[in-house]
Design goal:
Methane Monooxygenase Hydroxylase, Chain G, domain 1, rRNA-binding, Ribosomal_bS20_sf, 85% helix, 84 residues, structural constituent of ribosome, mainly alpha, Ribosomal_bS20, 3 helices
Length: 84
């Protein structure tokens, strides 16, 4: 249990941030899954990249993690484009 008022406030902000981070990560997972199923959908790819960048800006994901995911997604899109 927090002993000071500032520690109580910190607990509340941590819980709020945790909920937001969970929601953002969940949405990202869903978008990435959908993007893997439809690799030819350019607008979906743009929205995934945008969401990843916003997650980095909010501090939910690390910059290198988002870049790695974007890179892997782009590689997959390029592979499927070459194959067909």
């Amino acid at each position: 249990m927090p002993r000071h008022k500032s520690a109580e406030k910190r607990v509340n902000t941590n819980l709020r941030d945790q909920k937001r981070n969970l929601a953002v990560k969940s949405e990202l997972k869903t978008l990435l899954r959908r993007a893997r199923q439809e690799p030819g959908n350019a607008s979906l790819m743009k929205s995934v990249e945008s969401k990843l960048d916003r997650a980095v800006k909010k501090g939910v994901l690390h910059k290198t993690v988002a870049n790695r995911r974007k890179s892997r997604l782009a590689r997959m899109v390029n592979r499927t484009a070459r194959a067909s």
